[in-house]
Structure formats: C-alpha cells, structure tokens
Design goal:
Helices cover 29% and strands 30% of the residues. A hairpin with a 5-residue loop joins strand 2 (77-80) and strand 3 (86-93). The longest helix has 50 residues, at 2-51. The protein has two domains: 1-54; 62-193, Cupredoxins -  blue copper proteins (Immunoglobulin-like). The protein has 194 residues and is of the alpha+beta class.
C-alpha cells in the first residue's frame, strides 16, 4: 500500500512543480517587460529632451555682449517700451551685477532679463519669488511684480569664484508716481541716475 501512495504523491509534486515553474516564468517575463519598458522610457525621454529643450530657451553670444545689442552698457537697467511694458536688463560677470542698483515701479508687471559674460551665476531677490540661474550663452527671463516699495538685496547664489561673497546688487522698488517712466522710455535707468 505504501507503494501506491508514493506514485500519487509524486504526481501531485510534479503538478505543483509545474505550476510553480509556470508562475515563476510568468513573473520573470512580467518583470523583464517592466524593466524593458522603464529602460525604453529613459532612453526616449533623454533623447527627446536632448534634442528639444523643455522650454523656449533664448541663446546669446556671451563673448560679444558689450559690443552692441540688447545687453550693451547703455541698455542695462530698467526701460519702458512704447506699450508701457517694464523690462530690466542685467549683466552678471565676475564679481558684479551691472547695474549695481536696479529701480523698478511697485505693483507693475516687470520682465527681468539677465545674461552672464563669463561663468554660471545666479540671483535671488530676497523676500520675493525671483530666483534664477544665469548661464553663459543663455538669456534668463523672469516675469514678476513687486507689490510694495522697498529695497531688496540681490546676491549671487551660485559660487562663481574667489570674489563670490562680494557679488550682490540692490533692487529698489519705488511707488509708481515716483518712477521716471518718461525717462525710462528714452533710456535705461538705474538708481544712480535718479
């Protein structure tokens, strides 16, 4: 009788082993498919974003900034277009922001455009949401609004060399009635010209 129970037990064990192998095969193929899918997603996104940047990025020749154009010395500071749009242009270079003091009207939409002449810089206007990196060859553009008049510090927050700790500027926000709109439509203004 003992011999009769053994063959039946081995049939059950063989069936259990086959079921376990089949489940393991399904699990292995499923995991292989998931890993292959993840690798495909990584490859696709790296190639796609490598060819097409995630936003419209404006480039500029950092070696020719002061020779003319939008970021020449006479255009740095705050200017107002004929439509009334306020634009601030800033040049970051070791170890200063030009202009050193920026003046903007309070409670007015402001577009900040910054470029670097040499290495990676960054700036943050303390107490506001303005925070960006300034990379050579690219124009950093931010839109903001300063609700209250006041003086704000603007330090460089990316290490740019041995003089980094002294690289800062000031943003002076003045009431709309005190901002020189008429002068700013003719030339870029800053705190020194007020």
């Amino acid at each position: 009788m003992a011999e009769l129970t053994q063959p039946g037990a081995s049939i059950q064990e063989n069936a259990a082993e086959r079921t376990a192998r089949r489940v393991e095969r399904v699990w292995a193929w499923s995991m292989t498919a998931i890993i292959a899918l993840l690798v495909a997603v990584v490859v696709f996104t790296s190639l796609h974003w490598g060819m097409q940047l995630p936003s419209s990025v404006e480039t500029i020749d950092s070696t020719r900034l002061q020779l003319g154009g939008e970021f020449s010395e006479g255009n740095l500071g705050t200017s107002v277009s004929q439509t009334g749009a306020v634009t601030v242009r800033v040049l970051a270079q070791q170890y200063a922001f030009v202009p050193k003091c920026i003046v903007v009207p309070a409670d007015t939409p402001v577009t900040l455009r910054a470029v670097s002449a040499d290495v990676v810089h960054g700036f943050i206007v303390q107490g506001t949401n303005v925070n960006t990196m300034v990379v050579p060859g690219y124009v950093a553009t931010l839109k903001t609004r300063f609700p209250q008049p006041g003086d704000y510090r603007m330090p460089c927050h990316e290490f740019c060399g041995v003089g980094h700790q002294g690289m800062w500027a000031q943003v002076r926000v003045v009431a709309r009635d005190q901002f020189p709109f008429e002068q700013a439509t003719k030339e870029a203004v800053n705190c020194a010209q007020r």
